[in-house]
Amino acid sequence: MVLVAAAAMAGSRLAPAPSLESVATGTPATSAPLIAAPSAGPPVASPSLTSASAAPPPPTLVPPPPSLEPTAFPPVTLHVPILAYHVVAPLDVAASDLSKLLTVLPERFEDHLHALRREGWQTVTAGVLADALEHGRLLPPRTFVITLDDGHDDGWTYALPIIQRYGFVATFYIVTGLVGLPTYLTWAQLRALQALGMEIGNHTIDHLALPSQPAAEVLRQVAGAQAIFEGHLELAPTTFSYPYGLYDATTVQAVLATGLLGAMTSSGGLEQTWAARFALPRINVRNAWTGAQLIRSVNRFR
Ligand SMILES: [Zn+2]
């Protein structure tokens, strides 16, 4: 997984993307320790999605600028381990060599969650974490987040029963263009996951490396995916996961303009703040780790 740690706090230093000037209001997203939530209101209008090679959307279709007024809430710094999984399945189920690399075996996944439960850890979804950052609210000690990226159907077959066995919740970051394809979750399964208390997050339409794309395409991948989710799900995503963990100022602006509250990286780090909510650190959990090793990793946050 390619990391962009150096850019992790980049929102405060990088210039807004020219094509998104209408939403940038001249103040980069993370230049102040506190800014207002961009998305508490109803879903914003999304650009047309009729063509994969669409021209930049007309200005009237760009979401309205988020408020950058300081919030009334005091800043908090949270120390919540966010676990990143991709495939939870037996190795012979993993579809490709890359999937095999990203696979955690079900029995290992169970080791991890069993150990966390035994040590008194509790889950919240990524959306709850982002909401806590927005409102300056602390979360209980030993709170952690489970994320599963890419929307493989093993999330339903293997991961979900284990997550439920321990009374946990998870956030599934879904690529809309893969939904319903062989070996991927279906829209019906995504709605069922939401009904079970799980969360669906935005992981773009096509899982492209966003920093190499034109700004209009970046916005289409983020806001366009959000519109597709809104069309299929009761609850629209409130957080985002960067494909391959890659992002830049244009990417951050697109996530902000779409009204999302936070974004997951593949980079390490031991804290979350509102100012850095578009560069949330995660722990890339490996199959080689025992439950005890994972406990040592999350205990660094306490
Ligand atoms: Zn991914």
Please write the string of helix (H) and strand (E) elements.
HEEEHEHEHEHEHEHEHEEEH
Point out poorly predicted stretches. 1-70
CATH superfamily annotation: Glycoside hydrolase/deacetylase
What spatial form do the alpha-carbon principal axes imply? globular
Mean pLDDT figure: 82
State the share of residues found in helices, binned by percent: 25-40%
Largest pleated sheet: 6 strands, parallel
How many E-type strands? Answer: 12
Q: Please identify the structural class as seen in this structure.
A: alpha/beta
Number of domains: 1
Q: Cα distance, first to last residue?
A: 26 Å
Bound molecules: zinc ion
In CATH terms, what is the fold-level topology?
TIM Barrel
CATH class: Alpha Beta
Examine the secondary-structure arrangement and name the CATH architecture: Alpha-Beta Barrel
C-alpha Rg (nearest Å): 18 Å
Number of helices: 9
β content, as a range?
A: 5-15%
How would you summarize the topology of this molecule?
Layout: H1 21-24, E1 77-78, E2 82-85, E3 87-88, H2 97-101, E4 103-104, H3 106-118, E5 122-123, H4 126-135, E6 143-149, H5 154-165, E7 171-174, H6 187-195, E8 199-202, H7 215-232, E9 239-241, H8 249-257, E10 262-264, E11 272-273, E12 283-284, H9 291-299
Parallel strand pairs: 2-6, 2-12, 3-4, 5-6, 6-7, 7-8, 9-10
Antiparallel strand pairs: 1-11
Bound molecules: zinc ion (ZN).
Zinc ion binds at residues 149-150, 203, 207, 243.
